[in-house]
Amino acid sequence: MDLYILGAVVLLLILYIVITMLRLRKAVTNLTQEDFINGYRKAQLIDVREPKEFEAGHILGARNIPYSQFRQRYKEIRADKPVYLYDQNGGKSARAALFLKKKEYTQLFHLQGGFRTWTGKVRSK
Question: What homologous superfamily does CATH list for 28-123?
């Protein structure tokens, strides 16, 4: 009996992951660093990391809207302009993109690999 429950839990977990990945593909365009660089200067560049991480170093021109505050502050982002999102690894910015998609934002882009893989211009204190 316990084996059946464990199997069901694993199956549900796999199903959840697959559905989330499919939703993410529809919500946001994953960009390589090169593609990200080619477009972010004409868009709103949003860093969803926490303020301490942002202050330690961020992509030049980025605005910090931490993921922990995203639901309260998302209206600071214009819906009529492209939105380029990033975080440290890519997980939180992907969830932020899904949230914005639900709020009818349409031009959403995400830095593949996050800031961790960024080799472009950086500003730090």
Answer: Rhodanese-like domain (3.40.250.10)
